[in-house]
Amino acid sequence: MSGNRDQLLSFFLAQRDALTRFLARRVGNPDIAEDLAQETWLRLATGTVPQEVSNPRAFIFRVAANIATDTLRRRGRASALLASEDAGSVVPDPAPSAETRLIDRDRLRALEQALDALSENARTALLLNRIGGETHAEIARRLGVSESMVAKYIAQGMRRCRDWLHDETQK
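The chain above was modelled as a monomer; its predicted structure follows.
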């Protein structure tokens, strides 16, 4: 058995560069491939070797491939474990920042001022349509006006709010 081990180790030394390139392609990192080649040497030198190996190159490459597979699995499990442990620390806080809250509060105040500047019918039509989800026909019945007048009220309200918000943000 010692003669067979010596033969494999000699063959390993002759094929080391090819084996390292093979491992580098397998794991995608030449530094890790070097470590895996060294581990392959140790496994051949200290592990159980079959009494007869008909194709030493295939045997050595199979041992190295198995070591690479085991290493990739271990690293994958470790990465998954670290990712799950860190998952809570990388989730952004969904709450708006203080600055965003201030800007939103100012915009809401400006929108309220724009709505207050509208006529009662235009304000009611706009709010019933945009907030209440009512149709033009429903609003027309409620206000006692035509559907085309409701459309005009809503358009007027939208224009007024847009212009008011634009003017307020320019200040």
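The chain is about 80% helix and 0% strand.
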